[in-house]
Amino acid sequence: MIRQRFSIACPAILVGVTVAAVIGTTGDMMAQVLKDVQTPDTPLVLKAQGSFFVGGEKVEQTQGELGNLGPGGHIAVNQMYVRYMVPQGGDGNLPVVMVHGATLTGKSWETTPDGRMGWDEYFVRKGHPVYIPDQVGRGRSGFNQAVFNNVRAGSTPPANQPVWLRFSDEGAWPNFRFGPQAGAAYPDNQFPVSAVDELAKQGVPDVSFGGVPTPNPTLKALSDLASQLNGAVLMGHSQSGSFPLEAALINPAATKGLVLVEPGSCPARYTPEQIATLAKVPILVVFGDHRDTATGIPTLPSWQNRFEACQALIGRIRSAGGQADMLNPPDRGIRGNSHMIMQDKNNLQIADLILQWIDEQVSKRKAAK
Which fold does the domain 34-368 belong to in CATH? Predict the structure, then answer.
């Protein structure tokens, strides 16, 4: 067991949930309406907000690759869209970059499926500028359509097409650990399963496997973004959980802290030299509850196995003199958190634990230097 290096007193939260859900049927979904979105009592005061792109390259494509919408010519590909909010009075606080997981977009960090405040706004209210990218090939970052149009034109074999990934509602329940099977929530489950249809609406086609170059351009874009911000805390989730590590290896000076939320992997392949580089940056790994739930995806390791792989990585980094911690809410009596921990009913309680870690292990360390 990896010992904790920081302590926060938090009361246990045990929430019983009874769910009557019909999963896997076609037809209209339960619609969220504007009145379901909760408005905080205090205003959100911003110094700035906006959006921009990081990276990208200009390529020339044929008329057919462009879908026959006018002549061939040049377009931009592999750019990363970023939306940001900067709080009034937050000067000097470290920016936080939040990266979404597979088949999702930056929406993961915004208003929760049941209409509560998301981590993007909450971190801003706590004084941190927040930057929310859409991974290259996803959402407003777009994808390179030429690989599909070439197949349609017969110039590329169909087998060369990227795989389009999506999670079904049925698959999300065990893999995201809302319950052991669709419609059967754990008694202490923290995810708002009554709004699970709203989570389904957040899903988008994902061409990460074969639809983006190798290495994934998002990795360098994150490193470049952190550099443009003169240093930032990088936070990844699920598929992107290891992205902050990879960005830190590109430019450790720009990554002031790394937060890995339920990472899909904590790679064991890192060399001693890479571990020494990662040991220069404070790292926090965050996992939820019920990790022994069968994911329903035999080709992937269980969440408990991933948890143990992250413990092993933490051990290697500490042995190299680094600061690395595991935030495991069940150790603190906080039960029932899901894979979508940033959307759980106690999401702000978990956010406070992360914010305290950033303050103690990143901001104060930066100030001391």
Answer: Rossmann fold (3.40.50)
* Neighbouring residues of 34: CB distance < 8 A, sequence distance ≥ 6: none
pLDDT in tens, 4-56: 433 333 333 333 333 334 344 566 666 678 989 999 999 999 999 999 999 99
SS3 170: helix
The full set of domain ranges for the chain reads 34-368
| Residues paired with residue 234 on neighbouring β-strands, in sequence order | 97, 258
The answer to whether the CB of 31 falls within 8 A of the CB of 110 is no
Outline where the chain has alpha helix (H): 119-125, 146-153, 169-175, 196-202, 217-228, 243-250, 272-278, 303-319, 347-357, 364-368
Tell me the pTM: 0.92
- From edge to edge, which strands make up the β-sheet containing 73-87? 46-61, 73-87, 130-134, 96-99, 232-237, 255-261, 283-286, 324-327
Q: Which two tokens stand for residue 87?
A: 């709080």
Q: What is the dihedral of CA 250, 313, 97, 345, to 10 degrees?
A: 170
What are the respective helix, strand and coil percentages of the chain, to the nearest 5?
35, 20, 50
